[in-house]
Amino acid sequence: MTFFLRHVRESFPDAFILMVYDGAPGHSPGVLHVPDHMMLVTLPPYSPELNPSEHIWDDMREKFFGNTVFNSMNAVRDQLCIAMNHYADHPETVRSITAFPWI
User: What are the boundaries of each domain within the chain?
Assistant: First the structure.
């Protein structure tokens, strides 16, 4: 997660970034290094309806990881890269599964 935060910061160097994230233990500010000009806000526990990204993970598990046995963590990482590149190349898919009417 720290790597991701750094990547986002580098991608938007002139912006103040407010990032909303879940309360997973590995995501807590005490564990993470939060870059300057970035603020993290934690979602309330047990509130998947507030976290549209959960739908991306469900879709990814179904389409890219379903019934698959990997021989190594490198193979898992490679499959994750394939999935993430798919979503990056198909923003309409991301929009269709994360764009709740109230957002």
Answer: 2-48, 52-98
Residue 41 and residue 34: Cα distance in Å, rounded?
A: 12
Q: How far is CA 51 from CA 46, 67, 90, in A?
A: 10, 25, 20
* Distance (Å, whole) CA 81 – CA 75: 10
Q: Is the pLDDT of residue 54 over 90?
A: no
23 in Cβ contact with 45 (< 8 Å) = yes
Picking from 22, 7, 32, the residue whose alpha carbon sits closest to that of residue 84 is 7
The model's confidence at residue 103, banded by pLDDT at 50, 70 and 90, is: low
